[in-house]
Structures are given as structure tokens and as C-alpha cells.
Amino acid sequence: MPKTKSEIARIINTIKKELGEAKAADASPNPFQVLISTVLSQRTKDESTEKASDQLFRKYKNPVHLSKAPLKSIESLIKPSGFYKTKARRIKEISRILVEKYKGKVPQDFDGLMRLPGVGRKTANIVLVFAYGIPAIPVDTHVHRISNRLGLVKTKTPEQTEFALVKIIPRKHWLDFNGLFVKFGQQTCQPRKPLCWKCPVARECDYPNKNLKMK
């Protein structure tokens, strides 16, 4: 049975109370790094993305530098992220486009972001939220998994999840929704062995394979 809006609000507020705020900043000081890090995160674990991003931005700090960087150098720096050859070509091309068409600035609108190579709905929404403080609901693997486990939505793909969530999540929660659910997914509602025994909303969760015993 679908959750009511009051039930959804209670679940969100309960998770916030348990984990603390995970609010997105009003604006990142470096939207370019938010964009490129998100491209690097595709099909990659969080820790690998962080390592690749750190290595890349220590050497190439802005679109101008990265657009002129040798492809082999980029590949070497981002290798921890996986699919590094494809990603290297994409981020070099993104950098070139930003320099030539946007004066080195990252677009602040969804359509402009979606026109960049390798940028899909999740990446575009993450840039809006974390780089510019513009309300959106980025749906990554954590948000997709948890939203379905909790019974907030019944969807098959992240895109379907996004479209469903924007209809039921109050707009006041959009900016911090992704950060909150990512934190929840890392600490409690983990992919393979969720820690249901410590979950503050286990009783309201629809997940059939609850792990209710501490191990």
C-alpha cells in the first residue's frame, strides 16, 4: 500500500533525527569539480571516486587546464574510478565545451547540463543541488534502493524513481534528500546486508528480507 505524504514526512524526519542533517550546501565554491567528480562516480564506489577526484584536481584544477591536458595523463590520474578511458575522453571534452561555449563556467540549468557529454539526469541534478543550491532530487543507487525498500516508490529504474519522488517528496526536502539517503545507505541501509536491527524506520519499511538480528 502506498505511503501517505504524512508517513513519508515522518520517515524522512526520523532518519534526519537519527543521522543528523546531511543538507547540501547552498552553493559549492567549485561547481566544475562537483560536475567532474559526479561523472567519475558513474558505476564506481564512493571511495574510488574520491581517490580519483583528489588525484585529478591536484594536477588540473579548472576547465582550461583539463581541456589542454594529455589524455594519457588524465587516464592515469582517474584510473581508480574504473572505465577510466571512457571517462577521460568525456571529461576532457566537457572541459573543452565549457571553455569554448560557457567561458569556463558550468551551466546552472538542467537542459544546459544535459547537453554535456556523459551527463545524465543524476549528474545534472547533483550539480544543481550541490553546486548551485537549486532544488532537485538526484537519484543514485542509494536513493533508488532505499526509496524502494522503504516503500516510498515501486519503481524499476533510477529515472522512474526520480519522477515518482518529485511527486511525493515535499519540495522543502529536495535539497537534502540525496545527501540524507546516501548517508543512510552507507551507514545503515547497505546494499547487501542492511543493518535493519539498528534502523530507526524498520517498522515502516517494506523490505521483505529484513536483517533484524545484530551480527
Instruction: Point out poorly predicted stretches.
Output: none
Q: Which band does the percent of strand residues land in? A: under 5%
Mean pLDDT level: 92
Terminal CA distance reads: 31 Å
Q: Can you identify the CATH superfamily of the largest domain? A: Hypothetical protein, domain 2
CATH-assigned fold name of the largest domain: Endonuclease III, domain 1
The percent of residues in helical segments reads 55-70%
List keywords for this structure.
Endonuclease Iii, domain 2, 215 residues, mainly alpha, Endonuclease III, domain 1
What's the structural blueprint in terms of helices and strands?
Blueprint: H1 5-19, H2 31-41, H3 46-59, H4 63-67, H5 71-78, H6 84-102, H7 110-114, H8 121-132, H9 141-150, H10 158-168, H11 174-187
Description:
- This protein is mainly alpha-helical.
- It has helices at 5-19, 31-41, 46-59, 63-67, 71-78, 84-102, 110-114, 121-132, 141-150, 158-168, 174-187.
- The protein folds into 2 domains: 5-23 and 138-204, Orthogonal Bundle (Endonuclease Iii, domain 2); 31-132, Endonuclease III, domain 1, CATH 1.10.340.30.
- Helices cover 58% and strands 0% of the residues.
- Helix 1 crosses helix 11 (174-187), helix 2 crosses helix 3 (46-59) and helix 9 packs across helix 11.
- It is globular and about 55 Å long.
- The chain starts with a helix and ends in a 28-residue tail after the last helix.
